[in-house]
User: Which sequence fits this backbone?
């Protein structure tokens, strides 16, 4: 809707219906509103992502707390915690957990 108003002001300006000063004033106001709304949207998206991350951390904590001490590899637990593992050029292993935390294990 704001973009349409901005286009309308552009058309009115090119047709000579409004002068440059009014055009600049009005489009500046609209541009600021658009900027503010985009900023607000980004903030809401980030808050949602933060909430999802917190929930994944809670799930991870539950898996860890519900697991007894292990003396051997448990693939089911591993799969419920670890998303991916990759190796850096220097040999460092990076464990990316499902909660999006990363743990580097340096090569000895």
Assistant:
């Amino acid at each position: 809707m704001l973009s349409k108003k901005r286009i309308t002001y552009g058309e009115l300006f090119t047709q000579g219906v409004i002068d440059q000063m009014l055009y600049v004033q009005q489009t500046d106001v609209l541009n600021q509103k658009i900027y503010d709304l985009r900023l607000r949207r980004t903030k809401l998206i980030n808050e949602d992502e933060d909430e999802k991350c917190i929930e994944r951390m809670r799930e991870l904590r539950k898996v860890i707390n519900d697991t007894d001490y292990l003396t051997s590899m448990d693939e089911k637990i591993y799969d419920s915690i670890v998303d991916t593992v990759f190796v850096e050029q220097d040999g460092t292993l990076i464990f990316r957990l499902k909660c999006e935390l990363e743990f580097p294990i340096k090569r000895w």
